[in-house]
């Protein structure tokens, strides 16, 4: 029973996010924006749909129970949801499940985006681990973590190239790179 309530809530959340993304997409397009990376987007959707199919199949047919570590796993899951809301709120009308570009607009580098380039992708990666582990669906956790890694190795470079049309994003990337080099620079001994 807990499994069905939990999965129902997560699926409902995803459907609401898709509605928000669709609304934001219409707004961006109305402002002269455009989509990038549409060829791989269908595979992202497919992975997410199959994730839930696999999870439900593994839990129901494998007669899996909630993990004994559920307090820790659920707490970590709740943190990812706070991160998800923070990321969505930080981007406002620019948040989307697709890569949408609006030339002439200012790149949103606030909230979690000040600290990490793609926080929502990190959150999804953690969910692909935490949700299955919560219900001991280890095969789903492994398979979809690997599929997500492969998909992100395609998507992130496409998104990085698309965002580079904005000068402030190019500057942000240079500053971020410089900061990392400064921190990691070996200390000279006198």
TrEMBL record:
Gene3D superfamilies: 1.20.120.1630. It is a multi-pass membrane protein. One of its GO terms (cellular component) is membrane. Keywords: Membrane, Transmembrane, Transmembrane helix. Its main location: membrane. It comes from the Bacteria. GO terms for molecular function: protein C-terminal S-isoprenylcysteine carboxyl O-methyltransferase activity. The chain crosses the membrane at residues 42-61, 68-87, 121-147. It holds the Pfam family ICMT. It is found in: Membrane. This is Isoprenylcysteine carboxyl methyltransferase. It comes from Bacillus timonensis.
């Amino acid at each position: 029973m807990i499994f069905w309530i939990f999965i129902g809530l997560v699926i409902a959340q995803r459907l609401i996010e898709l509605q928000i993304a669709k609304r934001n997409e219409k707004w961006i397009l109305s402002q002269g924006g455009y989509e990038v990376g549409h060829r791989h987007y269908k595979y992202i959707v497919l992975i997410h749909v199959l994730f839930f199919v696999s999870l439900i199949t593994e839990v129901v047919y494998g007669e899996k129970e909630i993990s004994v570590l559920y307090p820790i796993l659920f707490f970590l899951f709740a943190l990812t949801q706070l991160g998800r809301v923070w990321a969505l709120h930080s981007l406002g009308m620019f948040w989307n499940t697709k890569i949408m570009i609006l030339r002439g607009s200012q790149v949103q580098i606030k909230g979690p985006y000040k600290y990490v380039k793609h926080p929502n992708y990190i959150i999804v990666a953690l969910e692909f681990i935490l949700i299955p582990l919560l219900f001991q669906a280890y095969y789903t956790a492994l398979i979809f973590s690997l599929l997500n890694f492969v998909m992100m190795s395609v998507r992130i470079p496409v998104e990085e190239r698309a965002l580079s049309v904005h000068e402030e994003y190019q500057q942000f990337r240079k500053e971020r790179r410089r900061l990392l080099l400064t921190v990691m620079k070996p200390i000279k001994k006198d």
